[in-house]
Structure formats: C-alpha cells, structure tokens
Amino acid sequence: MQVTMTVNGDEVTRDIEPRLLLVHFVRDHLGLTGTHWGCDTSNCGTCVLWMDGEPVKSCTVLAAMADGRDIRTVESLEVDGKLDPVQEGFLREHGLQCGFCTPGMLMTARWLLDRNPDPSEHEIRETICGQICRCTGYENIVRAIRWAADHPAGAEAEEMSA
Amino acid sequence: MSTGEATTTPVSEAGNPIGFGRMLRKEDARFLRGRGNYIDDINPPGTLHAAILRSPLAHARIVSIDTSAAEAHPKVKAVITGATLETLGLAWMPTLSQDVQAVLATDKVRFQGQEVAFVVAEDRYAARDALELIDVEYEPLDPVMDARRSLDVNAPVIRDDVEGKTDNHIFDWEAGDRALCDEVFARADVVVRQDMLYPRVHPAPMETCGSIASMDKVTGKLTVWTTTQAPHAHRTVYALVAGLPEHKIQIISPDIGGGFGGKVGIYPGYVLVVVGSIVTGKPVKWVEDRSENLMTTAFARDYHMRGEIAATRDGTITGLRVNVIADHGAFNGTAQPTKFPAGFFHIFTGSYDLEAAHCGVTGVYTNKAPGGVAYACSFRVTEAVYLVERMVDLLADELGMDPAELRMKNLIRPEQFPYTTKTGWEYDSGNYPRTLQVALDKAGYPDLLRRRDESRRRWAAAGGTTDQPGAGGEHLLGIGLSFFTEGVGAGPRKHMDILGLGMADGCELRVHPTGKAQLRLSVQTQGQGHETTFAQIVAQELGLPPEDIDVLHGDTDNTPFGLGTYGSRSTPVSGAAAAVVARRVRDKARVIAAAALECSPDDLEWEHGRWYVKGDPEQGKTIQEIALLSHGNLELPEGVEGHLDASVVYDPPNLTYPYGAYICVVDVDPGTGQVKVERFIAVDDCGPRINPMIVEGQVHGGLADGVGMALMQVIAFDNDGNCLSGSFMDYLLPTSLECPSWELDETVTPSPHHPLGCKGVGESATVGSPAAVVNAVIDALEPFGVRHADMPLTPAQVWLAINGRPTRTDIAAS
Predict the structure, then answer these.
(1) Is B36 within 8 Å of A44 when comparing Cβ atoms?
(2) Does A12 touch chain B if contact means CB atoms closer than 8 Å?
C-alpha cells in the first residue's frame, strides 16, 4: 500500500507493507535513526515521536495509521544550527548517559513545555513516567526539563564543549 | 562535603577544565541530535536480516527439524540448524568459564528460549515470517527449575552432552578459614541465621543486543559490528571459536545503548551472524527483541544464600559464614576470573573487622538461561554486600541495638588500612566511620528515628494490628542502612584472567605536530562518558585543553588490546593507563624541551602544560611547542626518538576499593503492601572525582537500579520451565515515579596505588543500594515481627510478609 505523510516538515510517499510499524518506517525507510526501538510492548518509550503534535509510541503504531498525518522526530528539534532548549537542558544538566532513551525523552519534554511552560517536579515526573531510562535514575532528566523551562529561549549561544 | 585537597584547575578557552572538574560531555553533541550510531542504525550495503527460532520448552529432546517450508520462502536466503553447524564444527562454543554452550541446539533444548534455528532473509519481517514455517518436533523432558533441588539424586541430568555427567553439579568453591570460623561461632554469645535469595534479575539496557557480520571472501577479512563492552576479548574468542585468523578480524563496538554487564558475553546470535555472512556472502544483521533479551541473554544473581553471623552480647561482630547455591542456568556462561568461579563473592565480610569468616559456593545447572555475569556488579560483589548488610541488620534486631550504632562499632578503623580481610582481600584505603557519619548527618538520623516511632504510634492508635494491618489507613515509616565496600578494577594479571587473557589494559597517546592529541583506549563506554573523562585525564597530566584530545575506542583495528569495560574497571585500570601514558609523554617532552632550551632535563620544572627553567620561568616550552619540535629537525639527545607518542600496558597492582554509606527511608502502606521510597541518601567515596557531574550521574542510575531490584525486578519461572518475565509488562523497571530525588554527598579517600587515586564508581550504587531499601522495608514492618522477606518486595510480597508468610519470589507456586 502507499502512504503519504509529513515528516519533519517534508512530505514523503512510500510503498509499504500494511503491517509495517511506524518506528521501522521512520528508521528503515526514511533513515531517521534518532527514533529508537526498545521493547515491542509500549512500555519503554524510546520510540516516542509526535503524530499530529501528540507523543506516540511508534512501536505500536502502524505506518499506515500515520497516512495523512504530521510526524515529528528528534531530528527536527534543532533548527538552523540552534538546539532546542530541551536539548540544551539535557546537555547542561547531564540528562543522558548512553543516549538511547534520550530522543523519546526530548520529544515528550518538548510536548510538556509547549503545554505547561512552568511544570512542577511532580508534573515532569508524571509526564515522563511512561518512558524508561536505565542510566540516569531520572534525576538529571527532571533537572534538564526544568532547565529548559527556566530558559525558554535557550541560554546565550555558547560553544558546545565538543 | 569534600575532604579532598582543594586545587585550582585552569580553564581552557572553550571553558572546560584542563583537568579534573565538571565538564559537559563531548559525546552528547551527537546523542542530543538523534545522531548516535547504535547497532541497529548500521546498515552496510546489501545487509540481510536474521531471526532466531527459539525453544518453547525448557527441557526437551529434539526429535526432528523440518526447514523445507522456510527455505522455500521467496525472501529467505539461508536457514541454519544445529545439524548445519555440526558439519562446520560450530554447534558448540566455549563459554568464558571453561564450559561449552550450544550455538544451536542439536540434541536437546535446555532452557526456554534456547536457540534452535537461524534464518537469514531480505528483511527483518520476512525473517520472522520464516520462523513460523519451521517445524520442530520435541519430546518433552522434566525440567529442573529449582536450584535448591537440582542436586537431588533423582533430578533429571541437564548436561548429558558432557561425557560421564550424572548430576547437575558445576563446582564447589570456598574461601576463608572454616575451622577458625567454627571455633568463633562455638564461643559466640549470639548467632543469627537467615536464608535469603538474591533473585535472578536482568540488566535490561534500553538497547538490546545485536550484531552485524560481514565476511569479505576476497580479502578474508571479517568485520563485526557488535554490542560489546569488551571488543578485544571478543576478537580473540571469535578467533578461537571459529578458527579464523585473529589479524583478519575487526570488532567494532559502536555507540552502546547501555550495557551494565549484559554486553560482556558472546551470545549464539553473535556467532550465527558470522556463519550467516560466510554462507550468504552478504553482511548479516541480527538484533534481538526485548523478549529475547530478557529470556536468553545474560541474567544476574540467582544466589540462594544461608548466612550466619556471630557476635558478642555487646555487639562486637566476631564471625560471618555463608553457604550459597549458585544457579548458573543450563550452561556455565559467567565471565568470572578463572581462579574465582564465584567471582569476588568472598568480599562478603564487607566493611567490618571480624575474627573469622568462611564461605562455600556450589554452582549448579538448571533449565534456565545461561549467564550469571551481568548487572553491575558482575563479579558477585552485589550479592556479597546484600548478604552482609542484611545479616548485620538481623543481628542488630537480635541484640536490640540501633543498626547505625552496630555498624559504627564494627567498621574497619582508618588506622587499620591497608586492611587484609579474613578471606584475603587487601583493602587499599578508607575512612569508614567518617563516611557513615556524613550520611547520618545528612539524613538527620535521630529525627528520622523519631518520625518512624511516631508513625508506629499513630498506626497502633488508629487500630493497626497484625490482623488489621490497614486499620485507620496509617502508613509505617522504615529506615534502612547499608555500608558497602566493593573490590573493582580487575585485576592484577597474576591473579585474574578470562580464558587465559590477563586483565591488563593497553593505552596509546599520540600528540600531533600541532599539539592536538588522540588517545586510544581498550575499554568501551556504554554511556559512562569515556570520550570526556579520559580526555580530562590527559588534560590533567599534559595541560592540553580537553577539547584538543580525541578519545578513540571500540574498534579493535584502531585501539590497543585490553579486556574491556565491566566490573567498574575502566577508571581503575584504563584510567590509570591513560595517566601513565600521558606521564610518559610528559617525560619525553621534558627531554625534548631541554634539548631545545639547551639545558639539562633536571633543570626543568613542569606547570600547566609547560616545561620551564627553574628560577627563570620565562624560559620554557609549552606542550604544544614541544609537540612541533618533536616532529621537526631539532637535534635530539642520543637514544631519544622523534614524535610525541607513547603506549603502555597497565597491570593494576591491586584492586581498588570504593565504598559508601547509604540510607533509605520508605513509606509502607500496610493495608496494601505498597512501598514508596521517600528519601535516599548516598555518600560515596570513590577517591578523587575526575568529572563530578558524571560520577553523580552514575550514582543516580545505580540507585534507581537498587530500588528496582529491591522492589520490582525478578526473572521468575514456573515449575514447567516457563519464563514469567519475558517482557516489560512482567519485568518491571523503575520509572520516574518510583524514584525519589536522590540526595548525594561524598568523602574522598584516594587509592594509594592508583596513579590518580581514583577507585571507580560505576557499580557502587547498584551494589550498595538494594540492602538499604530492603532493610528499610523490614524496619517498617517491625510491628508485625517480620525479620526477613526476599526481594523483590512487591506489594504482594510485603502483604504476605505482614501476614507471616513471605514467599519464594523466583518460582511461581504451582
């Protein structure tokens, strides 16, 4: 079957098997490997991306269900060489270690701050509780999202360390 | 509180510390943009995809395998069975513990999920489809699921592939002085005994395991991209297993999405992609799914322990002994040093000075997945710390003493270091009482005790009793302590090897003519931030800005040999290697600077990346200037070669011994058994911290691990051999809501034998925290007279404990 959708602002059309999962569509068919796959069962959230502005677990969404929809992945967060404040927050507060859950966490964090620019610690924890991180114990992810809330336009352009 | 020496670290133009200090991570630039390069992101041209058919039964004879329908699938390129492998001599592979493991089952299947057939197809969906087309006929056999009954005389023999094998016994091993221990126990005022289980758990990194093999038949070169924490060890094992020439094997470990020990071993899937590539002539990729990950790749623990502690009436601990049945699953696949089949379990005397200790460990086969290595700490220190810290709490309960007071009374005193334990470890350094006091102060311990007692009064006043635990809806507070000592940084090569490969690490440093450097490591990061931390080590030693130092790792063609990252060994071993190699470069730079300045090297002094003439600081050369000189036409002294490079192999003289004091505060709802971790205070002493931000992050993650293992995680089975924990719906991991905001602090006691004084910290929190959580829950349950309940302390288990019948958590009642 054929699907057409907008992915990170570009319209894409592909012939696919009806059973193809959205996570495999963006990774294997579009080469957007920032979205990861982690569990099959909607438990880990490393595959979170946006469909029509809402975070979804793309391991349990068929690519066919995304036909005509607007998809956004982690690759869309940086604009014109400027990191999104949530990306900057994760950098500055050490909100990532192995980096595998990070793309999903970033997408959920951006969604939260778009709706609630000043979330409490508990609101942050509730929002990311469907996503598992095995490295950070969540502490610095919470701080990273709070950093982004406190710096809605990012910090002054500072050179990244690398 | 920091008791380390205050030093001022210079700052580079980019704002980074030229040496130790908080520095944002270099590797984050790619991860934040979704540009990490993990195993499943790699697709060499023409890559085929593989899937593994696995056994639905835990123990069965294979009667027949019919692959004809799968082979007829239009997208299938190859179907491989154990019979195929037998013709190649590859049906069995050596494990890291002198056993063998089936790559694909030939005679029997020995655990649910065991590899039976391997399909290579054009895409991952077709490979899965083809698995459905393979018809295997099994003759079921009785499985052995209970380690405690595996040595029964009538137990089915699992490993009848081993000639003459008539039971499920693997090894007996002991440490300590049994006779002296018996004597100490015989004259003890108080002896406390407890059976306890450290259940089977799985590290469950967010990225599962996977591998891609590409065999170039023209050049004979095998390239393997694989999720490994130990790429060099893997290369040698591939050479041994497949008989391939080692110089034609390149192992590339790309970005790793978490390892925690689960990516140390070599799994059948890794071997099968190599076979698949040889058979098809194409690159072959296999990435396991989450169920495969949880059910078949390295589990951890599964230690059934009987502990006994002896003491005087006034609370002086005199002896500790333990007998263990260690469940190793169907094949002995642990990755322990050859001399130590139970790893470092004999560090079970913990942080206490006592008269005698003895442990005996019996390893057994069961019809469960093989492994036993994984999950920080891989070397069984986690089990050891849990044992001793539970036993000390049980003793405190028996004596009516405060657990903090009992610990403080028995901790090894600062003046006793270096301290040789009763099982032969030489602890390098420590000031244990100070660290415990810092933790007690930070927790506000006396106030916590008051709050706990108040919660008990309120609960009782509301009508709470054993029969009416939830009366009035009042909750109970519990406080748990744990004081741990780890031995990490394996290890001195004379004592420690795996498959005969000594645990030393190579390291190479090249300073280019313009003063920019590359450091090549043998260890491999899985999120620990090596690209940052190791650059900081070289910066500290050479005065180069860390942004001018690139760290290369994870590619055996481009890095020196070493045994890899596990057991918290990267900083203790490779970190030392990096410091030593940088010092060698610095020494060489001194000779070159002296030649350029026409003075003796002895006339030079070093400061902030510059050799200068004593008493004339204007006369000097920076390390960057020296780098250019070393590559130029400056006449060098006799015997000094050009260029500013060096390489070392670091053989650690001893392990390092990080330690810490942890305090957990829990809120228990006795009506439901629900436990909430209210506070967790962790004071770690890992010596000087190269990058405090990274150290704290590692501690955070380990604490979450501990909460998960104590309260949620278990790989359980039923008596028919079914794994009951094969997905994240059943194998519960802590989320942001189960974790409190961690409260950290530190003390700093450098290791006297590490060049930087560093001790390693990667596993400390995972090792130290479970006992604190369990001790806290048992403390909360004091009104019910609960002495012990095995992990995980799920609401059901807590509720059963309240009702006087805590249960086995590893096997479902049938």
Answers:
(1) no
(2) no
Asked if B523 and B562 touch (Cβ cutoff 8 Å), the reply is yes
Query: Which of 27-66 (A) contact B at CB < 8 A?
Result: 27, 32-41, 43-44, 46
* Separation of first and last alpha carbons in chain A: 44
Per residue in A55-71, pLDDT tens? 999 999 999 999 999 99
Q: What percent of chain B has pLDDT over 90?
A: 93
| Cα of B638 vs its chain's centroid, Å | 47
Residue B5 has pLDDT above 50, yes or no: no
The reply to whether residue B36 touches residue A78, judged by beta carbons under 8 angstroms, is no
Residues in contact with B57: Cβ distance below 8 Å, sequence separation at least 6, in sequence order: B109, B112, B138, B140, B143, B721
Going by pLDDT thresholds of 50, 70 and 90, the confidence category of residue B7 is low
Superfamily of domain covering B39-143+208-256+263-296: Aldehyde oxidase/xanthine dehydrogenase, a/b hammerhead (3.90.1170.50)
Nearest by CB to residue A134, choosing from B33, B258, B727, is B258
Residue-wise pLDDT for B341-386, tens only, equals 999 999 999 999 999 999 999 999 999 999 766 777 779 999 999 9
Stretch(es) of chain B classified as CATH 3.30.365.10: 28-36+504-650, 303-489+655-802
C-alpha span between B279 and B653 (Å, rounded): 46
| Residue linked to tokens 């990435």 | B287
Give burial (CB, 10 Å; 0-12/13-18/19+) of A117.
exposed
Helix axis angle for B692-711 and B764-780, nearest 10°, is 40
CATH architecture of B303-489+655-802: 2-Layer Sandwich (3.30)
Report the residue from A44, A101, A161 with minimal CB separation from B23.
Answer: A161
Give B179: exposed, middle or buried? Use CB within 10 Å, 0-12, 13-18, 19+. exposed
Alpha-carbon span B728 to B346, nearest angstrom: 33
Question: A85 has which bridge partners?
Answer: none
Which residues from B are below 8 Å from A131, CB to CB? 735
For domain B28-36+504-650, say whether CATH 3.30.365.10 is its number: yes
Q: Among A75, A98, A133, whose Cβ lies nearest the Cβ of B34?
A: A75
Is this prediction's ipTM beyond 0.90? yes
| CB nearest B526 (choices: A27, A46, A98) | A98
User: Could you tell me where in chain B the CATH 3.90.1170.50 domains are found?
Assistant: 39-143+208-256+263-296
Q: Does A32 sit within 8 Å of B34, measured CB to CB?
A: yes
Domains of chain A by range and CATH? 2-76 (3.10.20.30), 85-150 (1.10.150.120)
Dump strand ranges (E) for B6-122.
Answer: 48-54, 60-66, 76-81, 92-94, 100-102, 108-109, 115-121
Global pTM reads 0.97
**Helices marked H in B345-488:** 381-399, 403-410, 432-443, 445-461
Judged against a pLDDT cut of 60, whether residue A159 lies above it is answered with no
Query: Residue B277: which pLDDT band, with cuts at 50, 70 and 90?
Result: very high
